[in-house]
Amino acid sequence: MKMRTRFQVVPASLAISLVLTNAHLVEAQVVRINSNLQTDPLIVNGTSGGTLQSNCGNIAPKPNQVIQVTESLPYLRLTVESGGQPTLLIDGPGGRFCVLPDSYSGGKPEISGYWQAGNYSLYVGDLSKGQHNYSLSISQQKTPKNK
Predict the structure, then answer these.
(1) Is the dihedral of CA 99, 58, 126, 92 positive or negative?
(2) pTM for this structure?
(3) For residue 127, what is the DSSP state?
(4) How far apart are CA 69 and CA 42, in angstroms?
(5) Helix H segments across the chain?
(6) pLDDT at 146
(7) How far apart are alpha carbons 138 and 51 in whole angstroms?
(8) Is 10 exposed, middle or buried (0-12, 13-18, 19+ CB in 10 A)?
(9) Burial level of 74, CB count in 10 A (0-12/13-18/19+)?
(10) Please, which residues have CB within 8 angstroms of residue 138's CB and are 6 or more apart in sequence?
């Protein structure tokens, strides 16, 4: 009788664990992007950094944002601004790559160019172990608008 109870509890526990894990992964905000960006730039806010150490700074275990590019775009620019030392890890159809701040972009991680259709998981990391509020700017303009 004890054996039967264990076999009922283990599958139930496993099912609950899988549901909770998948619910946790779905928390990333999904931003749909097409050739007609309603607001330009589109600004998304969040908290950078995390507990996982990577070659792209400290990142969260799940993406901060997911960008769904619904059609291939000839030009798209992402820029991260933060009080810390932000990084941007992008995992998408073209592979996984890290964007670090440089002097050309004013110390902000920035990437621009052609984006093929697909889903892009964005991890806003930090080179320090801290967490900071960040602002992610998504634009189809080749030159940033003055604030």
Answers:
(1) positive
(2) 0.78
(3) S
(4) 14
(5) 2-25
(6) 58
(7) 26
(8) exposed
(9) exposed
(10) 31, 33, 37, 41, 42, 43, 44, 67, 76, 77, 78
Contact between residue 31 and residue 68 where contact means Cβ atoms under 8 Å apart: yes
Rg (CA), the chain: 19
Query: How many residues can be counted in the chain?
Result: 147
Residue that has been written with the tokens 């620019």 in this structure: 77
Residue 136: exposed, middle, or buried by beta-carbon count in 10 A (0-12, 13-18, 19+)? buried
Torsion of the alpha carbons at 131, 135, 136 and 138, rounded to the nearest 10: 180
What is the reported pLDDT for 107? Answer: 86
Per-residue pLDDT of the chain (147 residues; tens, 9 = 90+): 555 544 444 444 433 433 333 444 447 889 999 999 889 999 999 999 999 999 999 999 999 999 999 999 999 999 999 988 999 999 999 999 999 998 888 889 999 999 999 999 999 999 988 999 999 999 999 876 655
Tokens of 142: 């080749």
